[in-house]
From TrEMBL:
Stated name of the protein: Peptidase C45 hydrolase domain-containing protein
Signal peptide positions on this chain: none
Region Disordered, residue ranges: 1-26
Residue stretches making up the Peptidase C45 hydrolase domain: 117-351
Species: Bacillus timonensis
Biased composition (Basic and acidic residues): 14-26
Biological classification of the source: Bacteria, Bacillati, Bacillota, Bacilli, Bacillales
Amino acid sequence: MIKKLQLSGTPRQIGEKHGSEGKNEVHQSLETYESLFYGYSKMSWKQAIQVALVHLPAIHAYNSDFIEEMEGVAKGAGVRFEDILVLNTRSEIALAGRKTFSDGCTAIALTPPLTKETIIGQNWDWKSEQEKSLLLLEIEQRNMPTIKMITEGGLIGKIGFNSSGIAVCLNALHTNKKSEQVPIHLGLRSVLNSHTLHEAISKIKHSQMASAANFLIARVDDSGRAMAANFEVSPFGMDMIPNTEGMVVHTNHICSPEVQEHLTDMNEYKFEDSMIRKNRAEQLILSCMRTGTEMNENRFKEWFSDTFNYPNSINHYVNTSAPEHRQMETVFSVIMNLSKRTMEVCIGKPSLDGYIEV
């Protein structure tokens, strides 16, 4: 089961309620990441704060409301602002320019003409401890869409959809460089704050994001017209990777030649894990296309439960023979039907645990 928080008001009020009602989850995130930073790279929490503070000027210029919301989370949870800033910069600390961490995920979106409805979702693969940090946030903000988002306690941006028909999923990309610009989790929140696809892209294009990641974004407008595409963001610009047939898939390696010109992909298990998951997901979708099988939420559940190439499967299990920083597993799975504005979530592995509509 996942704890649900209803948040509304000013950015500070939204943050404070997040911190107070999600206090245990925030402290779980702090415990997890302090342990991980030190365990994998001997980085102290004080050093992590110094890395995070480098991004503060860019965040302030990008959207000062994010500063206020993080201050509110800190106050509500009874911790320092700098602690919450570290959580929202955790990808920049962990995944850029270091050989210590790897993140995982398989994300899929289907739109017409391939399907009648637009469905987007993913498995989020990470450290099992963070299952205890998960929160479902429903956020009402003035002059912005209402957001339904799954996040780790203390992070103000992650995976979800909004009342304007925009959804976003995240695939981490492990590369050799980052900048002092805006952390990617705040980019995810900016996408969810947007009314249109145009507005969402304007928040993440060029070199606004501090590190590399893939944002799988889908939009269904008020007339039911839809589109989905991968947006590989980086400190050196963004590339858009669409699919005119209505099938979009991404895992955890760089696919854009343009992004590859500027960054080195440091996913050491690219071939044994990420590429197999991507090709397997595409194979499962194509199999349904060839046989005329309807592709709906139930089909997504089957795909996200797939254990081909176990343990490095779409439904990810811990690989005990891998280095410690590669020992991850599926922590949650989410399926969003944008045509219906519904979300189903599985906490744990889809092959073992069921989905609930939230």
